[in-house]
Each structure stands twice: as structure tokens, then as C-alpha cells.
Design a protein that fits this description.
This protein is mostly helical. The protein is built from 11 helices and 9 strands.
């Protein structure tokens, strides 16, 4: 089935779902079901035509960037005013604001916020920017799941409106010294990332692990994080492929250094002509307990153990299994389980 055919089936199916949702879950909505359908068409057209310096429009790079924007927005912090004195770092809110100058959000302005701004501006009389970002995120997630060839159905997502919008949207006012969201460093392992999810969202290890599965879409940009590459082959299809690649011993994950001063992982076992994939330490750390045995240098990001079955080059100790190994294995085996759990956390 072609992508265009999937597109048509996706839109028809979602129209039926939204008619159902309009009865059971869209309460006090600023948009009617018909208006959401109209907005959806405009979002899909944007996704289908937008490309960036790393991927042309056929790879639909806006999907991954939008999901990252939503996550960074919802990571807070809350600000009732327009300077650092009114920051409340104890509250996390999807309020249509991120600090566009913060290196933790690098690339989001050019790759996500600016491309969707015309849509949010056009629909500003019906929904504010906070609602617009989340609504576009929902549409992107649904569309991406519909493009997957893996068996599984994304559960219906709620469309809700009326969120608080920060006064400086889209640019937040933050200061990491006096308040603000400090994201875990990308070259560290799983433990700091889980602590971030637990402290800021109250997530369990299972909920944190399933959200990492969003890396199945999009890519890392050297102009943003400094890391470079994609986690899966079909970067526009939302499914459990991230966990499949993570646990595929044929990938022979090994650390390499590219454009970032910190190492990333590459599938050194790939066949000739096969795409190079990447993982970060925090990705590998979902299954490999590198911190438990002090096998990760927190300054350099260099890891001195390798995942089970590694034979590519050199001799390394085998990393012990992380507590979330079974979670990742279950998701790799069952796409429907992954989709169900992801929506619960989303």
C-alpha cells in the first residue's frame, strides 16, 4: 500500500474516531469536530511538504521535531509572569513556552516552532499556542503510526483545549541558576534520565522507558544536539522499531565519535549498503546497566562495557542487564503493547 493510500485511509479512520471522541472526550472544546478535521488536513499537508537540511519532505522530518517540541514544552517550568522572579520550578505545564535560547532546546526553533507558527497564528482565534502545539503533536503522532507497516493500532488520543498560555509565548524566560528545567546531559546513561522523568513527571521506570521509544521517529541533528544520525530506518513511522534495533545483536552497537565531542553508538554490524543507525548512552542504558558497574565515564561519556553478543572489535566486559531490560524486550516483541503504553504516558 502506498503512502498516499495510507494517508487516505488514515484520514477516513480518524474522522470516524473524532466523531466518537466528540461525544466522550472532547469537552469544552474550542474547536468542533469538523474544525479539527480541517486543521488536521493543514497539518498533514505541512508534514508532507516540509523538509530540512538533513531530510527531505519524503522522510517527514517534522514529525519527530514536533514530538520533541511537545515534550520540551511540557517539561516546564511554569511562569505566571515575564521574568525569572515568577518562575515556579515545582510545576510542569504544557503552556506553549520554551526557552528558545537554552542549548537544551537547540534546533527546536528552526525545526519545529517556526515551521508550525503560521498554522498556530491562523487558528489563534480558536485555540492558543499551547493547545496548538499539543494538537499538532497528536495529529503528527496519529499520522506517523498510520504510516507504519508493523501490525498495531494507536489508541485514540484526547483532543482538549483551554490550556494556560504563558505571557511570553513562544519564548520562555528561564534561568537555570534561579529556576528552570535542566535536562539530563545527553552523554550520560539511563539513571539520570529516569531521575528526570521521575522528579519532573512522577513517571515510573516503565513509563520513562516507553517514552524513550519516541526515538523511533526523527533524528539527531548536529546543528541541534551535536549528535548526528537516526535511530531507525523508517524515521516517519511510529512503532516499536526503536526497541527492536536496540536489542538486535546483529547491529553490534559500538561507540564512535562524530560531530559531537561526546561519543554516540553506531550499528557497526550493519551490512554493506545498509543505513547507519545511532543510539545515545541513555538509549543503550535502557537495557545495559553501565552505571551499576561504573562502566561509564560521566565526564567523557566513554563506556567501557558492551551489550550482550558484542564481537565487533576489541575485548570488553559485558554490560549487566538494566532493570528495564524486560520492559524493552516486551516492547520489541509486541508493537501493540508499546503503542498502548505510550499513549497512556503521552
Amino acid at each position: 500500500m502506498s503512502i498516499s493510500q495510507k494517508h487516505s485511509i488514515y484520514f477516513y479512520t480518524l474522522s470516524l474516531i473524532l466523531q466518537f471522541l466528540s461525544i466522550i472526550s472532547i469537552t469544552n472544546a474550542a474547536l468542533t469536530t469538523d474544525e479539527i478535521d480541517e486543521f488536521r488536513v493543514e497539518v498533514l499537508n505541512l508534514i508532507d511538504t516540509f523538509g530540512n537540511t538533513d531530510d527531505d519532505a519524503s522522510q517527514k522530518p517534522l514529525i519527530g521535531s514536533i514530538l520533541r517540541l511537545v515534550f520540551h514544552d511540557c517539561a516546564g517550568p511554569y511562569n505566571t509572569g515575564d521574568d525569572v522572579s515568577t518562575l515556579d520550578n515545582a510545576i510542569r505545564l504544557c503552556d506553549g513556552c520554551i526557552d528558545l535560547e537554552n542549548p537544551d532546546h537547540s534546533g527546536l526553533k528552526e525545526l519545529a516552532q517556526e515551521p508550525i507558527e503560521p498554522l498556530c497564528d491562523k487558528w489563534s482565534a480558536s485555540m492558543n499556542r499551547a493547545d496548538c502545539w499539543i494538537t499538532i503533536g497528536n495529529i503528527a503522532l496519529e499520522y506517523s503510526a498510520s504510516l507504519s507497516s508493523t501490525a498495531g493500532t494507536l489508541p485514540p488520543l484526547e483532543y482538549k483545549f483551554g490550556r494556560y498560555l504563558c505571557s511570553t509565548s513562544p519564548d520562555a524566560v528561564t534561568n537555570l541558576e534561579t529556576g528552570g528545567t535542566e535536562f539530563p546531559l545527553a552523554h550520560l546513561g539511563w539513571d539520570p534520565l529516569f531521575e528526570f522523568f521521575k522528579d519532573h513527571f512522577g513517571f515510573t521506570k516503565q513509563e520513562s522507558a516507553v517514552l524513550i521509544g519516541a526515538h523511533t521517529v526523527g533524528r539527531a541533528h548536529k546543528s541541534g544536539s551535536g549528535f548526528e544520525g537516526k535511530w531507525t530506518h523508517d524515521t516517519f513511522a511510529f512503532n516499536n522499531q526503536f526497541f527492536i534495533e536496540l536489542l538486535n545483536k546483529n547491529n553490534q552497537w559500538d561507540q564512535v565519535t562524530k560531530t559531537s565531542p561526546f561519543p554516540q553508538w553506531s550499528n557497526m554490524g550493519r551490512a554493506t549498503g545498509e543505513d547507519e543507525l545511532m543510539m545515545l548512552n541513555s538509549d543503550i542504558g535502557v537495557v545495559a546497566a553501565m552505571e551499576d558497574t561504573d562502566d561509564i565515564d560521566e565526564i567523557s561519556g566513554v563506556v567501557s562495557c558492551r551489550w550482550e553478543g558484542y564481537t565487533h572489535a576489541g575485548t570488553y566486559d559485558t554490560c549487566p542487564r538494566e532493570e528495564t531490560f524486560d520492559v524493552a524486550l516486551n516492547y520489541a516483541r509486541d508493537n501493540q503493547l508499546f503503542l498502548d503504553d505510550f499513549v497512556l504516558a503521552w
